[in-house]
Amino acid sequence: MRHPYAREASLVALTAILACSSPGPRPDEAPRAVAGGDSLIQYPPRLFDRGVGGDVMLRVFVDSTGHLRPESSRVAVSSGSRALDSAALKGVERLHYTPAQRGGVPVAATFLQPVEFRHPNASAH
Prior knowledge:
The protein has 125 residues and is α+β, with helices and mostly antiparallel strands. The chain has helices at residues 6-11, 45-50, 82-92; strands at residues 19-21, 32-34, 54-62, 74-77, 96-98, 100-102, 105-107, 109-117.
């Protein structure tokens, strides 16, 4: 059973792409996650219930068709919680992306995908 706030918490989990790199010149446009339906990055219920949050930075690879290659996904910067890091990795595998663009042509790219886990009742810092 999902926690009543789990949807809101996980919707905040996905944020914008910070950086992009690929072979050759830098793409004009980085890959972008395409939103759709229910949130795919789930806040671990035990951590949510305890109000534990954090930020995870993932390094992921998206090919020129927008498909993420899960085997290439890595935690670039840990949240300090294995459970949050794992939830971010599992969730990002279910996302769909628009491919990076260079000169209007879709290209493969490795980029950084930040994931934030914020409890709605946590105090702002």
